[in-house]
Design a protein that fits this description.
This protein is 63% helix and 15% strand. It is an alpha+beta fold. The chain is rod-shaped, with a radius of gyration of 53 Å. Pfam families: MCPsignal. Keywords: Transducer.
């Protein structure tokens, strides 16, 4: 049993320095027989209170792994050593499957905790960004809806304006036709001489009504330049 353990310790001393270089986090290795520490490769950022030859207390993870023949993992908070620390251990067995010792690994968790904090902060920032984007999106949708409503109102106003133009065109046409009717009536009254005098008065009133209608539209700014020619035409007669 002692020879087999000695072989394991010799292999441990050769291989652990190489293994240690593979880890980004500070890591230490320890190997024991059933009672004491027989091999150690420590790191400056892992616990330094263990030396080769130290007796086991029976409460360590190494002792528990040998006692229960199982893998043991323990995490110690920062208050113990000034940094977070995780220790894992497994029992070592000889060729007869008898437990002859234990192998333990200690890992400084500060770097992992820092990365976890950074990830948490990034996650929080992304959540805030997502909320901000959601609010901006809602605002854009509100603006889009508001713009759509305004466009609909503009289209409605345009249609109503077109309808108003149609009414005004109709009034202008009626005024023009009425004025022509009055002119023709006045001409006929003049031909009738004394007998057409009363009819001439009616014709003049028709022309005044036509001119008044055209001027009323003009005063409200409804006449175009083309419409103004109607009013000028009315005054000429």
């Amino acid at each position: 049993m002692e020879n087999e353990l000695q072989e394991i310790v010799e292999a441990f001393n050769k291989i652990t320095p190489l293994i240690q270089q593979l880890f980004a986090d500070p890591i230490s290795f320890i190997i024991t027989d059933r009672e004491k520490v027989v091999g150690l490769l420590s790191h400056s950022k892992t616990p330094q209170n263990i030396s080769i030859g130290d007796k086991l207390t029976g409460e360590e993870g190494l002792s528990l792994s040998m006692k229960d023949n199982r893998f043991v993992s323990m995490v110690l908070p920062k208050e113990f050593y000034g940094f977070s620390f995780k220790g894992v251990s497994i029992p070592l067995k000889d060729s007869n499957n008898t437990i002859i010792g234990a192998l333990g690994i200690g890992i400084n968790l500060d770097r992992q905790n820092e990365l976890a904090d950074i990830s948490h902060n990034i996650s929080g920032s992304l959540d805030q960004l997502a909320k901000a984007i959601s609010q901006v999106t809602a605002g854009v949708l509100d603006i889009a809806n508001y713009s759509k409503q305004n466009l609909e109102k503009m289209d409605k106003t345009k249609l109503e304006t077109q309808n108003t133009d149609n009414v005004l065109d109709f009034i202008r046409n009626v005024a023009g036709q009425t004025n022509l009717l009055g002119i023709n009536a006045a001409i006929e009254a003049a031909r009738a001489g004394e007998h057409g005098r009363g009819f001439g008065v009616v014709a003049e009133e028709i022309r005044k009504l036509s001119s008044s209608s055209a001027d009323s539209i003009k005063d409200r700014g409804y006449f175009t330049d083309h419409s103004k020619s109607y009013s000028q035409c009315f005054r000429e007669y």
